Amino acid sequence: MTPLAFHLAAAAAGWSPENWVAVIVAAGALLGTAITGLFAFRTSVRTNKTQERMAEQSATIERAKVVSEAFEQAKAIYDHAIDELREELDRVRAQHEKALEQLDRLSEKLQAERGTNQEIRDELHSTQREMGEMRTRMAHMDRLISTLRRQLVEAGLTPTEPVSLEGA
User: Fold this and answer.
1) 162, 148 in Cβ contact below 8 A?
2) Can you give the residue range of the structural domain that contains 142?
3) pTM above 0.70, yes or no
4) 3-state secondary structure the chain
5) Is 20 exposed, middle or buried, given 0-12, 13-18 or 19+ CB atoms closer than 10 A?
6) Is residue 142 part of a domain?
7) Cα–Cα distance list, 38 to 26, 27, 33, 35, 133 (Å)
8) Which of 84, 91, 101, 159 is 20–30 Å from 68 (CA)?
9) What's the total number of domains in the chain?
10) Is residue 137 a part of any domain in this protein?
11) Looking at the domain assignment, is residue 167 inside a domain?
């Protein structure tokens, strides 16, 4: 509706110019209130979005703090475990060194005992061989004595007491 048509319609309805001023002022006030309300709404929306963003940032910061604290605790636990494992490794290495030293001593002792053992075996085998040779010689001497005694008896002589080498 154009202003002239509006003016004619208002005149036909019996409105006076004072009413027009009141209507225009009321319309202006209404328009101002609407604009102020719109600005207030937009400001409120922006404020809400800003508050939401700030709340999200705050929550993100809190989560980061929690994660950071958890990481620090986990790191402390891991560091402690690593320290304990290193100490245990040092103890095991020391035990290993002692075991190697003991093994070396035992190995040297075993070698010495093997040498002594071999010497004893060699001596035993040598003595057994000598004993066998002695038995053979004793048996040969026994036969020789028996032969000589028989020859004495055949010659008419009496032999002296019989000598037995088996008891000696």
Assistant:
1) no
2) 16-153
3) no
4) CCHHHHHHHHHHCCCCHHHHHHHHHHHHHHHHHHHHHHHHHHHHHHHHHHHHHHHHHHHHHHHHHHHHHHHHHHHHHHHHHHHHHHHHHHHHHHHHHHHHHHHHHHHHHHHHHHHHHHHHHHHHHHHHHHHHHHHHHHHHHHHHHHHHHHHHHHCCCCCCCCCCCCCC
5) middle
6) yes
7) 18, 16, 8, 5, 135
8) 84
9) 1
10) yes
11) no
| Distance from C-alpha of 69 to C-alpha of 34, rounded to nearest angstrom | 51
Q: Give 17-28 pLDDT, tens digit per residue.
A: 566 667 777 778
Q: Tokens at residue 127, please?
A: 């003595």
Give the residue-averaged pLDDT of 2-11. Answer: 61
Q: Does some domain include residue 89?
A: yes
Tens digit of each residue's pLDDT (9 = 90 or more) over 112-167: 888 888 899 999 999 999 999 999 999 999 999 899 889 988 888 887 765 555 54
Residue 92 has φ and ψ, to the nearest 5°, of: -65, -40
